[in-house]
């Protein structure tokens, strides 16, 4: 195995979701300066789901027009689009236009839609591209995908985004001089601007582009994969079919295993394939949308430090799970089910704490903060490992299986968003805790 190819695969995976992840962590700095205010996260959720038109188009092309779509060209286009959109955000994110008599951040919303299209489409283009490389490099790609959430969070932490200090505030209780003193949350100024942060995201997309070019043309990568120069998997599939036809004997040898289904190599029955994809959609719905949408509700009642620790350590848990999978590449469907149940149980606990917000269990006890932080780490660690397991399984099944993998990832996220958006943003089912004034019996 080549260390260079591992590094390039990791940097290539870094560009998969770094733009949208970066935009989310920058919200506390952006929101006070735009007319949409804290309605912006709801708008972002809708835009990200609308951007699924990208992966839908790619999936339909693979299904009905196989061989027509040049995957390498699509990857070049979406990385370039992500680079340009991130760069333009640095100049235009505060600009507004009057729409229906009210100022709107049109440039921010339009560019966010382009970024979301890039990141969503990467699920059905980046993964299939990894079929060109040896199977072990897929784990490095998943590590990079995990780092795409960790790196913006670390930079935002250095930037000082969302740092709150509790200051005394005095409120008059009546017309006399009587007054009550309470703590008020006050956001601290950032160490560097949002413009510089967006330029950093653009630079990360350029790094992804450079890694993709080297994966295509670097001599050491080419020596490892001499038969990897194809654009959409059709050539490989045709060659495999031709080779099988040439080598197939006129009579089946006694005891030879027949394919269990027409999916991929036929190693899994249709029931097992359905099980794999249901688990994949479920894990991505939970980790990408359902639980992140209530993270502030589950953590803020325990204090601002608990919230930031849970967000940061959960971001570390994702690439850590991928790193573990590099040395323990297990493909057991039973273990997959056990880990999914365990991760879902931890997720159910986190959801219950969000429902009980602003007065969850042990809210006045330091043990409560420790438990909620560890719960977030365990939740992300287990389900991230499950997603890597499924990626390794589907990589063995061929190019089309990885295209289906990306499509199910986006479908799971879409269903999760469709469920949580009305609960959080329309019906106001959750109540936020105040990091400075949590009053519970």
From TrEMBL:
Please give the name of this protein: Riboflavin transporter
Does the record carry DNA-binding as a key word? Answer: no
- Write out the entry's keywords from A to Z: Cell membrane, Membrane, Transmembrane, Transmembrane helix, Transport
**Pfam families attached to this UniProt entry:** SLC52_ribofla_tr
Q: Catalytic activity annotated for this protein?
A: riboflavin(in) = riboflavin(out)
Region described as Disordered: spans on this chain: 228-248
Q: Which organism is it from?
A: Amphiprion percula
Q: What is its main location?
A: membrane
